[in-house]
Design goal:
- The structure is a single chain.
- The chain has about 475 residues and is an alpha/beta fold.
- It has helices at about 1-15, 50-60, 70-80, 110-115, 175-180, 205-220, 250-275, 315, 340-350, 365-370, 445-460, and strands spanning about 25-30, 60-65, 120-125, 145-150, 160-170, 190, 195-200, 225-230, 280-285, 320-325, 330-340, 380-385, 395-400, 400-410, 420-430.
- It has one domain (about 25-365): Alkaline Phosphatase, subunit A (3-Layer(aba) Sandwich), CATH 3.40.720.
- α6 packs parallel to α7.
């Protein structure tokens, strides 16, 4: 109790010393399918990311940071709720245009908490937590939404609300949109708040439009605290970039990352131009690892094992950078952290005093940010979306040790029969062996046994929520694989 009181007083004394009269702004920048090795500051040698690299050199670069899932929707649910996705029923898949539900309406998100405490909140970019009435961003604590409802390779729901000022492209009309047989893979709608304003959206211009909308929002909120969530849809495939970035490199993936890097630079420049940088926490990270299953030229998770779709290091360890000049202590942090921790970290830095939080899987990382104190997170649980029954723990990490209870056989990752239970759990020391090449189970049986018991104890605390993906829109035309 005293520790929390000290931290609260510390945060606000820092604000007073800086002459700040309002709570700090928070900007979360999320890439989609960006790998651990896809930034120059994390070892990439194929292309440059100067703006993100500068952000890392001026702030904190975390090397042991995990997304709560290896898939898009559950990773986003965890960011907003501070809960492992099994607790919200979002763990087993991603939401499609035929999904009737989304993030449970009973969820109390970090955006809602901030909104209820005086923050103006805005989501720019990809949502992917439900597109039907009652499941859009404004239902979960965002004042405004501008972006696409799900991944950029999906299709439209013909029953979605359409704005009176909608712009139709590629020969599309309202009648065609509402009719059957006209859904096209990769034709996704652009939404303003809760209605389509462009269909299909011109994806080549999207990143630049995200930048414009974000900068407008920052300028409009110079005098009051804001939470800006910039959720990029790239470098998820299909990759479309603006004209200025189409020929930077021969690799489209590299061009997409470079345009994201450019956008980060524009955001930081805007903060400095309006003297907001010393009162704004900015975070850059990814929703999960790189796609190496469907994208032949996807990103890299080197030296980690696995990629997106796998509950593995490569699937869930992501780059994470925290930037807040004169407040965040510069350096490389080799402590454990997770996107789950954004909830209680944002709550702490904003000075919100609520006595309890439903975000039971979230830790407050602000002592690490402000003082380089040891991280309060000492463990992380990996849940495979494809291991029945739901909520089965695939692996566990405690400090530097990781036990694998299951292994995935490529390429049939989504077939439960291709994910096998290890007769004898595997054990790795991730500090010495981040690529998980040396099984140490026989050398350290006591450590393995302790991890087994630790995992079993945590399982007993899990209340598995109903599956949010089970209900489908019956009028939808489904592709063959989904039928």
């Amino acid at each position: 109790m005293l520790d929390h009181l000290f931290l609260f007083l510390f945060c606000f004394s820092a604000f007073i010393l800086q002459g700040v009269e309002k709570a700090p702004n928070i900007i979360l920048i999320l890439a989609d399918d960006l790998g651990y090795n896809d930034l120059s500051c994390y070892g990439n040698l194929e292309y440059d990311t100067p703006n993100i690299d500068k952000m890392a050199s001026e702030g904190q670069k975390w090397t042991e940071f995990y997304s709560a899932s290896h898939l898009c929707s559950p990773s986003r649910a965890a960011i907003l709720t501070g809960l492992y996705p099994v607790r919200t029923g979002t763990s087993s898949h991603v939401f499609f245009e035929w999904s009737a539900q989304g993030l449970p309406r009973t969820s109390y998100t970090i955006s809602e908490l901030l909104q209820n405490n005086g923050y103006n909140t805005y989501l720019v970019g990809k949502w992917h937590l439900g597109h039907r009435h009652g499941y859009l961003p404004q239902n979960f604590g965002f004042n405004k939404f501008y972006g696409i409802p799900y991944s950029n390779d999906m299709r439209v729901d013909p029953e979605m609300e359409v704005s009176d000022s909608v712009v139709f492209r590629e020969g599309m009309t309202l009648a065609k949109l509402r009719g059957k047989g006209n859904k096209v893979q990769g034709w996704v709608p652009l939404i303003l708040d809760d209605a389509i304003i462009e269909y299909p959206v011109d994806q080549t211009t999207l990143t630049q439009r995200y930048i414009t909308k974000s900068i407008e929002f920052i300028k409009q909120n110079k005098e009051k605290p804001f939470f800006l969530f910039i959720s990029h849809h790239l470098p998820h495939i299909p990759i479309f970039v603006s004209k200025d970035f189409q020929k930077r490199y021969d690799d489209p993936y590299a061009n997409a990352v470079c345009e994201i890097d450019y956008s980060v630079g524009k955001i930081l420049d805007t903060l400095k131009k309006h003297s907001l940088e010393k009162n704004t926490l900015v975070i850059f990270t990814s929703d999960n690892g790189p796609d190496q299953v469907f994208n032949d030229k996807g990103g890299s998770a080197f030296p980690l094992k696995g990629s997106k779709f796998f509950a593995s290091e490569g699937g869930q360890k992501v780059p994470a950078i925290f930037w807040w000049p004169d407040t965040v202590e510069k350096g490389v942090i080799e402590e454990l952290g997770s996107t789950l921790d954004f909830y209680n970290t944002f709550k702490a830095v904003s000075g919100i005093k609520s006595k309890s939080s439903l975000a039971q899987d979230s830790h407050d990382l602000s002592p690490v940010l402000f003082e380089k104190s040891p991280s309060p997170r000492s463990d992380f649980f990996y849940f495979s979306s494809f291991v029945p029954p739901r909520g089965t723990i695939y692996a566990v990490r405690k400090d530097n040790w990781k036990a694998h209870f299951f292994s995935s056989l490529e390429p049939d990752f989504s077939n439960p029969e291709s994910i096998i239970k290890n007769k004898n759990p595997l054990l790795y020391n991730l500090k010495d062996d981040p690529g998980e090449t040396k099984n140490l189970a026989e050398q350290f049986p006591d450590i393995l046994e302790s991890l087994i018991h630790y995992s079993e104890s945590f399982s007993k605390t899990l209340k598995i929520a109903p599956n949010s993906y089970s209900e489908k829109i019956l009028s939808q035309e489904l592709p063959e694989w989904a039928q």
